[in-house]
Design goal:
Strand content: under 5%
Distance between the termini: 94 Å
Largest sheet: 2 strands, antiparallel
Radius of gyration: 35 Å
Structural class: mainly alpha
Oligomer: single chain
Helix content: 55-70%
């Protein structure tokens, strides 16, 4: 295997032709693929944490080992001579002892990690709150103590112990555990945000920096957005909260769904909501639907109607945006506005048959039968397989023929 790997890994070119009759066809200036593979993995590590993956790390060290082994060997008439210096018995014994020690330490550490995870798994289903029985709180606390003892480098265990101390109303102990968790895993955004919430009011700059860093460092940023916004609102930074929501919602409109209750809880004015909502039809429609469910009928109409202002900004216009508003106007006994929305829907979606039917129904109620017939015929042409539309058209034709 090593003999055939020589041409692929050698940094000095392939062996002379007479010593390697088969040859590889590579020139002396050919780049060594082994080194290229290592460089590719390292370059990838600049933009991704791929070496955190055990399989990728193992592959990297395999390539390194193979490269080191191959470039330090040569072949003379099928006989191998090593260019590596001979290892004495003392050095060999020391290397073996160091390797054995390393394996033992690694095994003990991994066993500790597994043991800590097992103990924590026994109690993690218990939600720690002031309503949890004291004996169960003590059970959770003991399990976390043991987990911290067996796996002292994991931040999750002191973080959970901090929650227990919060429930016990021990702020200093809770802060100490939260600080320990953040020091162990400074890239865990939730740990930094918890620490920020526990800082005294006399340290607002540090708290704000921790909240922002916690959000920026987290892999799941959207999951920490709500806590950052709520902290800004609680601490009186309302304008900053509005600007933050405006920025994030414009980049990820789907976040609005989880934040709508927050807008209601902190009594955002209509002006503030208009600033926060992204300039998209779906977002305004969704907020209008929420207001109608909470009983704010006038506000629901305002945001649903205002949603149509952004139709020209959408890449694809959906019929459901118009039908939601049409249904709303019909429930509110506003047929003129419903008809206006139907006409607007036809302007944007002239080939959507239901709009033609609704407009035809309006003309028929007004006695303008020839216009109703035109709209019905257009709907049947758009959906020739729809038997309901065909029945409407036949009935209208009969009414016209017999003068009804």
């Amino acid at each position: 295997c090593v003999r055939w790997c020589w041409p692929c890994f050698s940094t000095t070119g392939p062996p002379p032709p007479e010593k390697n009759p088969g040859g590889s066809g590579l020139s002396r200036s050919s780049p060594p693929p082994g080194a290229i593979s290592i460089c590719a993995l390292l370059m990838h590590s600049v933009v991704d944490f791929n070496l955190h993956n055990g399989a990728v790390g193992l592959y990297l060290f395999f390539i390194c080992g193979l490269l080191a082994a191959v470039v330090n060997h040569r072949y003379l008439h099928y006989e191998e001579e090593s260019l590596l210096p001979a290892m004495t018995g003392v050095r060999s014994s020391m290397l073996s002892a160091a390797t054995a020690l390393f394996l033992i330490v690694t095994g003990v550490c991994q066993l500790g990690v597994l043991s800590a995870g097992y103990r924590y798994a026994q109690v993690k289903h218990l939600y720690v709150s002031r309503y949890l029985a004291p004996e169960l709180q003590a059970e959770v606390d003991e399990a976390l103590r043991n987990s911290m003892r067996f796996d002292p480098l994991e931040g999750r265990y002191p973080f959970e112990r901090g929650r227990i101390e919060i429930v016990r109303r021990q702020p200093l102990e809770a802060f100490a555990y939260s600080l320990r968790a953040a020091r162990l895993q400074p890239m865990a955004g939730v740990y930094l945000q918890r620490l920020a919430m526990m800082l005294p009011a006399s340290r607002p700059e540090e708290a704000e920096a921790l909240m922002e860093k916690g959000y920026r460092r987290a892999l799941d940023k959207d999951g920490l957005l709500g806590s950052w916004i709520e902290w800004l609102l609680i601490t009186g930074r309302r304008e900053q909260a509005v600007e933050l929501m405006q920025e994030r919602f414009s980049q990820a409109p789907q976040l609005l769904v989880s934040m709508i209750p927050l807008l209601a809880a902190y009594e955002f004015s209509r002006h503030e909501v208009v600033r926060v909502l992204p300039r998209s039809v779906q977002s305004w429609m969704r907020y209008g639907d929420y207001l109608e469910k909470t009983g704010d009928i006038e506000g629901a109409g305002y945001f649903r109607a205002g949603a149509l202002r952004f139709l020209d900004l959408e890449g694809e216009v959906r019929p459901g945006w118009f039908t939601q508003l049409i249904s709303y106007y019909r429930r509110q006994k506003q047929p003129e506005k419903a008809l206006e929305t139907v006409r607007l829907g036809i302007d944007y979606l002239p080939d959507y048959a239901p709009f033609r039917i609704w407009l035809g129904d309006h003309y028929r109620q007004q006695g303008i039968t020839y216009r109703a017939k035109e709209e019905y015929e257009r709907a049947v042409m758009l959906e020739p397989g729809n038997e309901t539309y065909r029945k409407k058209l036949r009935k209208l034709e009969l009414d016209i023929e017999f003068g009804e």
